[in-house]
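Quick note —
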Amino acid sequence: MGGYSIKDWGAAGASAMALVLAVTVAGNLLVPLPPEPEPGSPDATTASAPAPKPAAKESARPAAQHASTAGPVSLAARLAVADVKRGETVAKKCVACHPLDKDAKAKVGPTLWGVVERKVATGDFKFSEALVKLGGTWTFERLEAYSENPKTFAPGNKMAFGGIANPAERADLLAFLRGRTDAPVPLPQPKPEELAAAKAGAAA
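Predicted structure written out below.
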C-alpha cells in the first residue's frame, strides 16, 4: 500500500526532536554570557554588597520631668534637684493674678510672698468658701497638688488656672516660692534612691 507506516512516522519524529535539540545547544554556545565584573569595580561592589537593612526608627526622647523609668519621682527628690531660676520663669504664669514681693497688695489673687507653710485662706484677701473649709497649711505637697490642678484639689475655688502638668516645673516653682520669704522653710529630705533617680532624670 502507498503512504507512510507508523514506523516511518516515528523515525521522522525522532529526527525532528534531535534537530531542535541541536539548534538549542548551538544557540547557547553562540550567545555570550555577560562578563564577570572586575574586583573593585562599581558593578562588583553592587553585586557583592548585601541589601541595606531599613533604618530603625529613632525613639522619641521623653520630656525631662525629673522622673526615672521606674516611675514617678517623689516631690522631696524633685525639690532637691529643682532649679530656682527655672522656677522664677514658671512663676511668670502666676504674676498676672498674684504679687510675689513683700508687702505687695493682693491682685485678682492673694500674695504668694511667704505662701509656703502659711495657713490656708489667711491674709488680706477674700478667699473662696472652698479654701476656707480646706483649712490647714500650705505644705509643699498641698501647693504642688493645687498648682497641678486647682479645681480638682479644691472644688469650688475661684482660681481660673488650668494647672501645671510637668512635675519638674512644679518643683521648680515651689523651690522659687520657698525663697519668697524672710525665713525659708527647710526642704523635705528624700530617700537616697529617690534622690539618685531625680538626679538621673534631671541630667537626661
